[in-house]
Known about the structure:
Blueprint: E1 19-24, H1 28-44, E2 52-57, H2 63-72, E3 79-80, E4 120-128, H3 134-153, E5 157-164, H4 167-172, H5 186-203
Parallel strand pairs: 1-2, 1-4, 4-5
Antiparallel strand pairs: 2-3
Amino acid sequence: MSSIKGPSSTHFDGSNLRIAIVHARWNKSVIDALVAGTINKLKECGVKDSNIIIQSVPGSFELPFACSKVIAGSHVQASTSSGDLIGLSFGGSSTSLPSTKEPPIPTSTVVNMPNAPFDAVVAIGVLIKGSTMHFEYICDSVSHALMKIQIDTGVPVIFGVLTALTEDQALERAGLGRGSEKGHNHGEDWGLAAVEMGTHSKLWA
Ligand code: DLZ
């Protein structure tokens, strides 16, 4: 039986929107697929390359701080999707995946970011449960902090943080499943949500 889960689709025009993607680098192969899925959907909705700004941070715990700074327009390091797209490979399913847990490697290109406001920010991270309580603390604090940022600033923050109990759960939610079912790339949903909420946020300003 097919699943009833997921939002019903409505089309929003992203051609006037400016969107930031802030992503962690832990579990990079999954992150790369999710960021690519988000960007693809943003572009499909009409968001211009030059209006998609990407900033990476070490891990998910750093996402709230970075989102807050990006919204405040006070950071100067970012990479644009029209330039060297943070060194990601967008080849998709052919990537070999010995393990999703890789050490974080900085990938951002430094460019000057104009101080224009963002209509929405997508925070992307992949948390995979280990043997300690680390996972629970980070999941809890990051989700609460991201919610607080959007309420406090009035800029929608899309919750693109996977909280997976296993590596396979994370891979499936990025469309990289190891079995016959590759799964659905949740980055696409986050791109759609960013365009919808960015549009609402402009109208409700
Ligand atoms: C330390 C750590 C661990 C163990 N696991 C993850 C993870 O699965 N996903 C993730 O995004 N980050 C992880 N981190 C790094 C923390 O988020 C953070 O970067 C460090 O604790 C430094 O503040």
